[in-house]
Amino acid sequence: MSILINQLTRVMVQGLGRDGSFHAVEMKKYGTNVVAGVHPGKGGTYLEGFPVFNTAQEAVEETEAECSVIFVPAPFAEDAILAAANAGINLVVAVTEGIPVLDVSGVLMELNELGTRLIGPNSPGLISPGESKVGIMPGGIFQRGPVGVISRSGTLTYEVVNQLTAAGFGQSTAIGMGGDPIIGMKYNDYLELLESDGDTEAVVIVGEIGGSDEQDAAAFVKEKITKPVVGYIVGRSAPPGKRMGHAGAIVEGASGTAAAKVEVLRDHGIPVADTVEHIVKLISEKLGG
């Protein structure tokens, strides 16, 4: 069992430029059930055995795709996401970085009305090891197991997962929720799903400076989550007002600092690791490794 995707999930890829085509093939090689591509002007062609359509509507009608991953350039990503949702897609994964904040705000309101979930934007995607990956995550470092991983950073996800896998702690599902200031699904949404997942025995949440998502997650964990949760916050030496990598990783108030987030997590009973290696130790203590 896993959350959001599995080996049966029918995936389409929107935006088959250089990067989209490369990762579509990589997803297919991993075992993802890629059933369609969408790229205006390429309709009627095939990529790695799956058909390509000019529009999302055509792709969904012909293949019954249910999840879409967006590689469309930022100026056109808003239209691509909405096209997928209006065609009936119930889960959209937006890898695209740099989509204007106002565009994302409008998209979220419309997706809410349509009942479509959005991961990202600026997300590396998600993976249920051994079943399916949707996005750009390097599948080789993941291993099936009991730990759910939710992270604001793709690179940090890989670091954490690599250490967990090396220590024998595989993952049920790992998600990069996106590093932009405004994103779709947040920690609480994933925590609720992982709480209900029979294969998930513990959860790692990887946060960074900026915003208050980690504080919201801490309160949610204390109130709603019965499974062990371990935290890790990066950016402890980040100076105020300076963006650190992600658009959303900028300290603009006292609550957005790493120190404030660590304090809140610990106040709510969530152990916080000091290093990536320390995460493994904390998980081992929770699961008995």
Structural commentary:
This protein has 289 residues and is of the alpha/beta class. The protein is 37% helix and 22% strand. The protein has helices at 18-30, 56-63, 74-87, 101-114, 154-166, 187-196, 213-224, 258-267, 276-287, and strands spanning 11-14, 34-38, 46-47, 50-53, 67-70, 91-94, 117-119, 125-128, 132-135, 144-151, 171-176, 202-208, 229-234, 272-273. A seven-stranded mixed beta sheet has the order 3-4-2-1-5-6-7, with helices on both faces. The longest helix is centred in the N-terminal third of the chain and has 14 residues, at 74-87. The model has no long low-confidence stretch (mean pLDDT 92).
What is the arithmetic mean of pLDDT?
A: 92
Tell me the helix content: 25-40%
Please list the strands of the largest sheet in the order they lie side by side: 3-4-2-1-5-6-7
Principal-axis shape equals: globular
The major β-sheet equals:
7 strands, mixed
Distance between the termini: 22 Å
Radius of gyration: 18 Å
Strand percentage: 15-25%
Q: What letter string, H or E per element, gives the SSE order?
A: EHEEEHEHEHEEEEHEHEHEHEH
Quick description:
It contains 9 helices and 14 strands. It is α/β, with parallel strands linked by helices and 289 residues long.
Walk me through the topology.
Blueprint (H helix, E strand, L loop, with lengths): L10 E4 L3 H13 L3 E5 L7 E2 L2 E4 L2 H8 L3 E4 L3 H14 L3 E4 L6 H14 L2 E3 L5 E4 L3 E4 L8 E8 L2 H13 L4 E6 L10 H10 L5 E7 L4 H12 L4 E6 L23 H10 L4 E2 L2 H12 L2
Parallel strand pairs: 1-2, 1-5, 2-4, 5-6, 6-7, 10-11, 10-12, 12-13, 13-14
Antiparallel strand pairs: 3-4, 8-9, 8-11
Helix pairs in contact: 2-3, 3-4, 5-9, 6-7, 7-8
